[in-house]
From TrEMBL:
UniProt-listed PANTHER family: STEROL DESATURASE (PTHR11863)
TM regions (residue ranges): 80-102, 164-185
Species per Swiss-Prot/TrEMBL record: Picea sitchensis (Sitka spruce)
Residues in Fatty acid hydroxylase domain copies: 172-301
Signal peptide: 1-21
UniProt GO cellular component terms: membrane
Pfam families per UniProt: FA_hydroxylase
Lineage: Eukaryota, Viridiplantae, Streptophyta, Embryophyta, Tracheophyta
Primary localization: membrane
Name listed for the protein in its UniProt record: Fatty acid hydroxylase domain-containing protein
Listed GO biological process terms: lipid biosynthetic process
Amino acid sequence: MAKLYPFVAVFLLLSASSAASQSLNTSSDSIPGKDFSTGGKQSGEYLQLFAEDISRSNNLVLGVLLPRSIWSPLPRVLQIWLRNYIAGIIVYFVSGGLWSFYIYYWKRDVYIPADSTPSKEPIFLQIMVTMKAMPLYSALPTLSEYMIENGWTKCFANINEVGWPSYILLSILYLVLVEFGIYWMHRELHDIKVLYKYLHATHHIYNKQNTLSPFAGLAFHPLDGILQAIPHVAVLFIIPTHFLTHEMLLFCEGIWTTNIHDCIHGKVWPVMGAGYHTIHHTTYRHNYGHYTIWMDWMFGTLRDPIAEAKNMKDM
Ligand SMILES: [Zn+2]
Ligand SMILES: [Zn+2]
């Protein structure tokens, strides 16, 4: 029976996304220029709403941090890339820096034994790897915004177009499909030897408490990081998604990956916290999931940190 779970799950996901799209095709009749059924059929007037959102985000980040004379002459696609690059760096250093300060200094020896606190060397290396990858990471949201602005995806601009109940349902479907996509992308990065050797191994050189740190969260080969984030963009062609929610969830990845690399087991079911992810870094064969334990549970790769600790004690 357990072997049927994956097929049932895929069937349910596809049915739910198709039902959601169909119900929105009906409700979108009243939205001028909007057609949820296919990409590329949205009127220029409707697409202007995405363009305005993008310009507002550019102004919010670039307008505050840089003189207008530096960024406003750039082509629009470069403005978007620069904004994503700066926002990515801010999210990485603020979330990683604050969390590291809290667990290693402020609460020293509370969550992490003092003798397991990572030294400066692995943290510095993680920051270097991340900084090298960040220019390419920033290209993914830039591509996704380009496709959204040109009407290629099923994105919609305002929550009130679909109403809050549909918005919540669609956001849940988006997250479930992202979870499914990231699980399989991550698992293939381990199973396909050449991908592991040339891409994913870069992230797996950190494999214990005193080498893993919140700064390891984005320390990937740039192509590895992009491959694992692709489900966020691919889902836009399947599920009608609120544009700014997609942007926000993509950037939340930066905060989430900080959290799952701190080696502190949060014990909040069904969240796949750092306790699970630390096991992933040590066994290489378990806990490929991202936000929750469900994909690993369904596909038979889950290993529980509490059971693991108990086994070690009994040995
Ligand atoms: Zn891995
Ligand atoms: Zn990791």
